[in-house]
Amino acid sequence: MSLMRLIFSLAAAVCVLIAAGQPAEAARRLVSFNLNYPMGAIVIINSERKLYYVLGNGRAIQYPVSIGNQEEIWTGMEVVTEKKENPKWTDPENPDNVVQGGPHNPLGVRAIYLGWTLWRIHGTPQSWSIGRAVSNGCIRMYNKDVVDLYDRVHVGAPVYVIKSRYQPKPTAHGGAKLNPAPKVAKKPRRRTQGSWRRTSGRRW
Q1: Are 141 and 51 in contact (CB under 8 A)?
Q2: Which of 4, 117, 153, 201 reaches 20 to 30 Å from 179, CA-CA?
Q3: How far is CA 133 from CA 62, 71, 129, 188, in A?
Q4: Using CA atoms, how far apart are residues 23 and 20, in angstroms rounded to an integer?
Q5: Can 104 be counted among the known catalytic residues?
Q6: What does the CA dihedral 104, 15, 148, 41 come to, rounded to 10 degrees?
């Protein structure tokens, strides 16, 4: 093999490895789904970082998602109350900062509104965040995936968010609640033999 051919072969191999490491623009797939949820429902399993659109007959479409961070993760049941194409985004800390709809909008190209909460299922320009727990409670999807889900789900569809497959199905509509990760308690500092404080002249 000539030196030039070897160089081209190595370059092609590097390109394949780089492409494999990049997040897919759309990663949905048809999977088996035997949990007891109605056809047309959305089921989000936090521990898996996956959203399932239930097709019935033991099947669902699976999408990778980003979920809430340790302080904003939540579980419960809501319903789809509204759907918007190319939604505007308003900065919650500065209402004058409004980003128009489009692929670079923080809400991506589609938004699915859940109950009367501030949570959404939406696209994102931050594809690196998919598969991680980094959002402020919203469910992020690849833009191409949220377009696919948007076209399938209807207003009024139930949305179930559970910690794992072993958690019972939520039944209370509007019962979504935050489930922040427990904070690790700090161990009390041990007093050394020489540590002391003055209280009425006594040594501790």
Answers
A1: yes
A2: 153
A3: 18, 10, 8, 30
A4: 8
A5: no
A6: -110
- Residue 25 tokens read as 């623009």
Measured distance CA(60)–CA(7) in Å, rounded: 45
pTM of the model: 0.75
Which of these is catalytic: 15, 104, 122, 154? 122
pLDDT, tens digit only, all 204 positions of the chain: 455 554 445 544 444 343 334 444 568 999 999 999 999 999 999 999 999 999 999 999 999 999 999 999 999 999 999 999 999 998 878 888 999 998 889 999 999 999 999 899 999 999 999 999 999 999 999 999 999 999 999 999 999 999 999 988 887 666 677 776 555 555 555 544 443 333 344 333
